[in-house]
Design a protein that fits this description.
By secondary structure, this protein is an alpha/beta fold. The chain is 42% helix and 19% strand. The protein contains 22 helices and 28 strands. The strands form eight sheets. Strands 1, 2, 3, 4, 8, 13 and 14 form a seven-stranded parallel sheet that branches. Strands 22-21-20-23-26 form a five-stranded antiparallel sheet. The protein has a four-stranded antiparallel sheet with strand order 6-5-7-9, covered by helices on one side. It is globular, with a radius of gyration of 28 Å. The structure holds 5'-O-[(L-methionyl)-sulphamoyl]adenosine.
Amino acid sequence: MKKTFYVTTPIYYVNAKPHLGSLYSTLIADVIARWQMLKGEKTFFLTGTDEHGQKVAQAAHQAGKSPQEFVDSIIPAFKSVWERYDIAYNIFMRTTLASHKQGAQQLVAQLLKQGDVYKSLYEGWYCVSCETFVTNKDITDTDTVLCTTCGRPTTHVAEETYFFKLSAYQEKLLQWYKDNPHFITPKERSHEIINFVESGLKDISISRTTVPWGVPFPDDSVHTIYVWVEALCNYITAIGYGDSAKQQEFNTIWPADVHVVGKDIIRFHAVYWPALLMAAGLALPKRFLVHGWITVDKQKMSKSLGNVIDPITLCDEYGVDPVRYFLLKHIPITQDGNFSYADLEQCITSELANNLGNLLNRMVMLAEKNNSMSIDAPQQFSPEALKVHAACIDMMHTYDRHMQDYYFHLALNEILHFLHIVNAYFHANEPWKLAKTNMPAFKEVLSVVAHSLRAVAFYIMPVMPEKMRELLQGLGITYTQDTDIFETLRLDNWNQPFTLVTLLPLFTKPDTLMNDEKTVSSIAQQTTQEPVHESTIEFSDWAKVVLRIGTITSAEPVDNSDKLLRMQVDFGTFGLRQILAGIKPFCAIEDIVGTQTVFVYNLKPRKMAGLESQGMLLAGKDEKGAPTIIRPISTVPNGTQLQ
Ligand code: MSP
């Protein structure tokens, strides 16, 4: 039987309602699941809640409820956010379910029986917020020991616990990482984990005697299973582990194809979880996709700072699909990303309303005005139309490649780039004039735009399911789950007839728009009247130079050149560019790929070694005259303009 594609989110602590960060992890998994379904894969998507442990018990106590009452009262908040955001999960797993408890106990019992688990004394510190044993050799018990992850004070723990022989799996894990280089994505996180394991693994404590709100340890109910070990088991208990009647189902779904996790919990997932699975004789997941953190106005979201973003308020104001699109397009999966209302509004206005929604509207309005709501494809397309067709095929290939790597922001950038081409084609051909002079040429333009928008709608469907369904309606296409879009597009010679339908605008521009360009030009108008010195320039001169931060997503040597590197640079909403620079002798490719640096963005493109460079990298020279790349001291959104 064909294996089901299995994608999971972390299970969320239920000490509070979901926030933008929880939505982000879940959205990534949802888009992966939808993309696989679109490709015809049988898919299983798991999410859920992590309901045991000290943190949740404390929150229940503060709320004056029993832990069970408390967790039951929080679950609807999670379910309603996921429902609102169209999260198409198959199972919402709760760790308080009897089937989960039984499965987790079965796994621990097996490890106990085969000698991978033993009883001893644990003495050290525990962070309740992270539910983590803090291992720091250099601290004494008289200090206030702060958690190395969250910075909060830890509590001292001295109790008898069961230990898992993690140390026995060090070499096996290292061998696994070596044999499976894509096990952890992105590779920076993979290096981190390998370094951690190489530095030596100690056995870990996997039970507590002082935390009653948990799953009883097998055959020793004085202990409960350490909440992290029990929580990780949800990935297998949700699909039938521990239930002999579900063994077959389990076998078609496990192992997970992708576990989506935030960077803060990668150690539990990519070290402890594989070791536990190895010990249990179960297959290991194929991949961990590790995402960064969303900050708000450059700060971590926290209740005390009052900057926690509520996903429901956000979609009430901006709509579900625009928020889904923004989070995936503007936060590169490999990095932390900042959320700001100004960026969200800018994105909705320029990328969604102007580039996408308006194109559909303008085309349909023109068709309506000229009684041409039914368009047939021409027998033969003109050379300009064929260029758009070629760009469309290019977009589809590149999009697919980026989606395979889970680089959603780059995939969506490809769409944006393609939409710029279609918009430029539409304007250059002036169909409003053609309607009066050359009806076949007019219809050809409409046909090109309709075919292009159809491809765009199919491809962004996993990210904006509702809006893209609407767009297809505007093109007279009814999308059903059974539509094999890849087959349709693969065989497509742009010969589809369309029956256009008038719709309300797909996207509404937010009222309170903060327009970057406006700010720049108004600054530029405030030209200083001070006397000009020989070595100074007018402000308006400086304003002509656009410097932007971009992430180098790939770099390779250029044939027949000792110095040049050819880089692909991601400028976020401003697109992906090819830029060449003479830095090859001075830096290692792996040191620059994935890093941010400054580029002159509006320099006229020029040819270097036969290749076009669409910008210039800025560097200073060190004492030896070697170029040194300039980097921002903290990550900023790609495309950020220096001013
Ligand atoms: N319960 C554990 C996971 C157990 S999985 C077997 C846990 N829960 S959590 O609720 O604290 O975090 C769940 C996920 O939300 C993590 O992937 C975490 O990275 C993500 N986020 C929480 N805040 C976040 C941001 N501000 N930004 C992005 N994601 C972050 O850890």
